[in-house]
Each structure stands twice: as structure tokens, then as C-alpha cells.
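Exercise: predict the fold of this chain.
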Amino acid sequence: MSIQLFVADKVVRLMMKRRFRRKPSVMELRAIMDEMPIRPVPKRFKTQTVDLGGIPAECITPPHADETRALLYIHGGGFVAGVPANHRPLTWRLAEGVGVPVYVVEYRLAPEDPYPAAVDDCIAAYRALLAKGLAAEHIAIGGDSAGGNLTLVTALKAKALGLPQPAALVCLSPVTDHDGFASRIDNAKKDAMFDVRMISSVPALYCPGADPSDPFISPYRADVSGLPPTLFQCSRDEMLRDDSIMMAQRMKDAGVDTTIEIWPGVFHVWQVTADMLPEARKAIANIVVFLKEKLVS
């Protein structure tokens, strides 16, 4: 563990876990993410807001990008919070490493726009990239936490609609089943960010009146055969660890080319702290290797 991670872990526990203990609702995540400083993208990149099928997205294009390929990125935030700019320390590094534009979709958030609004927006963005003339095998989809859920669901929705599958998926600590797995209890004290009551507050806000076991809400319940090669990264010590482990195993059992990395000592979606943590930059480097093999080679 780097000294930077040692310090960051203590800060996260102080600033986030304590707040969720006092107010165990996922809506507190909106306040926390609204308070996050927005870090600029390095000037060598072109950064602009674009329209993807009626959905706004932040497009980060590195110098000398191959614009015939793209990464569609879906940010996390418990389905209720976040904007594309919150994730810039991760997304610009992915753009630079892979050498393609990264489109970070600004999907509608619950509770104002509950399920299936976010799913509809993400599939609309994917359709728009196809309509721009990009081949499906030249598009990857990635996301973290709630965005990791939406990454899997977008691929499942594309399958249901008869659309071609993307080249690859990247899921960073995704939510894969709203009923949850053992790590939500087993790692409740180890998790640096969340309170188990906060996680259990999500379905009532994200999918009120819907069945949380719907495979387009809990992709672990879906027929995952035919999905593209997928990389999972998660923390050994987070409450959502088993969402990745169980989903990865389900996909492997269905014949999907699946890789999972379980990182010790880090916190939920540590990759977004790449400006500070060497562990985040190393994780991103692994994602870049995966995406270059599946998307560029």
C-alpha cells in the first residue's frame, strides 16, 4: 500500500463513511459528489459536450486519436448522483492510453427520472455511436458502480434489441444484483465508504414499483451468453466485492471471455483518484492494456 493510499483511505473513511452513518441514504451521495472539486482535463485534449441521440455527453479526445473507435463511459453515483466531469482523472487517462475518444454519457438520474430512464439514455447513446458510422467492434463500453451496472445492462439491452454487441465491457465495482451478496455484510466494517443501510436505500429511489430482480435492473439475473469480453476490477475490502465476483463467474460459466482483478487495500472505485494514487494509475494501465487488445488490435 502506498503512503498516498494509506492517507486517502483515512480521509475517505472520515469524509464519507461517517456521513453515511449519520444519514444512510444514497441521496447523501449526491451532496458529496456535488461538493467534489472538478479537475480540468489537460490542455492537450479536446474536451466538448456533444449530443448522442439526444443525450448530452462529455467527449474527451486525445491528440492523434483514432476517431473510428470509441469508449462509451457511464459514470457512477448510485443512480442518483454525478456528472461526467467528476470522473475526469479516470476518463482522460483512458482516452490517452487507448488513443480514442471517450464519450461520458450524462444520463438522467433518479429519483427525478427513475428506471428505465438511465437505461434508455445509455442505449440511445450507444445507438448514436453506431449511427455515426462506428462499427460495433470498434466501440467499448465501461462504467463504475451504478455505471458498471448500466454498462452490463446496455449490452443486455442491445442483445434484446438485436443490436450488435460492442467489442468489450469494463466494469469497475459494478452493482449486479440489488438483493446483494455476502460481502455487503462481511465487508461492512472494512468498506471505507459505505454503510449497508445506504446501499439498501437504492432500489426504492432508482426503480420504485419495479421488480429489483428484473435482469435490466439486476444483470446477475440475466442470460449473459453472447456478451463481449469483459474486465472487472473491484476492491477486496468493499461491500460490493461479490457483485463483481459472482457476475464474473456467471459470465465465465456462460462462455464469455471474462477477466476479474480483485485489488487489496483500495476503496470503492479508487480508479477515479488517479491524480493522487499510484494504485489507481496502475489499475487504469491494466484497463488500457485490455481495451487496446480488444478495441484497437
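Check your answer against the key: The longest helix spans residues 3-22.
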